[in-house]
Specification:
32% helix; Alpha-Beta Plaits; 2 domains; 6-stranded mixed β-sheet; alpha+beta; 4-stranded antiparallel β-sheet
C-alpha cells in the first residue's frame, strides 16, 4: 500500500481582465495568478482493489463524480490504464466556491500525486493538457507558481509575483455565481481593468507601489452588486492597514496585501469567522 500527501495551494488573482466571449461559451481572460502558502491537504492511498473513494472533512461536499478531485483521479486512471484503485482524502481549509480555485487545486494535487505514486513521469505540459479538460484553472494549479494566464487560463507564462509581504484572506461566507458574473460582464459597459503587462514589469523590478495601480479585478464591481459584503471586507482590510485590497476570482473571497506583518489577534477580532488565513505568497 502506497500513500502520499501534498498541500494543494490556494490561488489569488493579482489582476483579472475578461477580454471576450468565445464560440465555445468560455471567455478569454488575462490574469496574473499567484499561489499562496495556504491550502487543502490532499492524501492519496493506492491499493490493489479497483475503484476510487473520496472522503472529506466538509459535510455535504460531493464525494463522487460531482467532485473535480474524484474526476481527476478517474481521468488519470482511465487515460493511463492504471491498475488498482485510489482512496482520496481531502482535508479542506479553502472555502468552497470562493474564488481561490479550491476545487481546481485539489484536482491538480490528485494528478501530481498519482503521477508520483504510479511512476508515470509525466511533464507539466502533459498534465496540463489533461487538466484543462477538467477546468480552466487546473493548468495554473498544476504549475503552482506566479504566472500570466491567458486563453481560458490554460496558456501559462511564468512571471515574477509577490514577495516579502503578507496576505490576509477573508470570506463573507456567501457564494457568488461565476456564471452570473460573466453574464453581467457581457453587457455593453464592462468595467475597465488594469494594465497586466505593466503590472508584471513593475513586479519584476520589485516596485510594489507602482504595481498596485494595475492590481484590478474587473469582476469585483459586478460581484459587489450581488454581494455587498465584499465591499465591507475590502474597506475593513484597508482600515486594518493593507497596502492593497481586492477580490480574488469571481469572489467572494477578498485579500489584503500587507508589507508589514499583521497582528493575528487584531485580524481575528476584526474579521471573526470571515478570516480564512494569514499567509504569504508562494514562489
Amino acid at each position: 500500500m502506497k500513500e502520499m500527501t501534498m498541500l494543494a495551494k490556494a490561488k489569488i488573482n493579482l489582476s483579472l481582465n475578461v477580454l471576450d466571449k468565445r464560440q465555445d461559451g468560455y471567455h478569454n481572460i488575462e490574469s496574473l495568478m499567484q499561489t499562496v502558502d495556504f491550502g487543502d491537504e490532499v492524501t492519496i492511498r493506492w491499493n490493489k482493489e479497483p475503484g476510487i473513494t473520496l472522503t472529506t472533512n466538509v459535510p455535504g461536499l460531493p464525494v463522487h463524480e460531482e467532485n473535480i478531485a474524484y474526476r481527476s483521479a478517474k481521468l488519470m486512471q482511465e487515460t493511463f490504464q492504471l491498475s488498482g484503485g485510489f482512496d482520496i482524502c481531502l482535508n479542506k481549509k479553502i472555502p468552497v466556491a470562493a474564488g481561490l480555485a479550491g476545487g481546481s487545486t485539489n484536482a491538480a494535487a490528485v494528478m501530481h500525486l498519482i503521477n508520483r505514486l504510479c511512476g508515470l513521469h509525466l511533464s507539466f505540459e502533459q498534465l496540463a493538457e489533461l487538466g484543462v479538460t477538467l477546468g480552466a484553472d487546473v493548468p495554473f494549479c498544476l504549475y503552482g507558481k506566479p504566472a500570466l494566464c491567458e486563453g481560458i487560463g490554460e496558456i501559462i507564462t511564468p512571471v515574477t509575483g509577490l514577495s516579502d509581504c503578507y496576505i490576509v484572506l477573508v470570506n463573507p461566507g456567501v457564494k457568488v455565481s461565476t456564471k452570473v458574473i460573466y453574464e453581467a460582464l457581457d453587457g455593453e459597459n464592462p468595467p475597465k481593468g488594469g494594465n497586466t503587462r505593466r503590472l508584471i514589469e513593475n513586479l519584476s523590478q520589485g516596485n510594489f507601489t507602482a504595481a498596485m495601480v494595475d492590481m484590478k479585478n474587473v469582476m469585483e464591481t459586478v460581484a459587489i452588486d450581488h454581494c455587498p459584503a465584499i465591499a465591507s471586507l475590502l474597506h475593513k482590510l484597508k482600515t486594518a492597514g493593507a497596502n492593497h485590497a481586492m477580490m480574488s476570482g469571481s469572489g467572494a473571497t477578498c485579500f489584503g496585501i500587507f508589507t508589514k506583518k499583521p497582528e493575528a489577534l487584531e485580524m481575528e477580532n476584526l474579521f471573526g469567522e470571515d478570516l480564512v488565513a494569514i499567509t504569504k505568497p508562494s514562489c
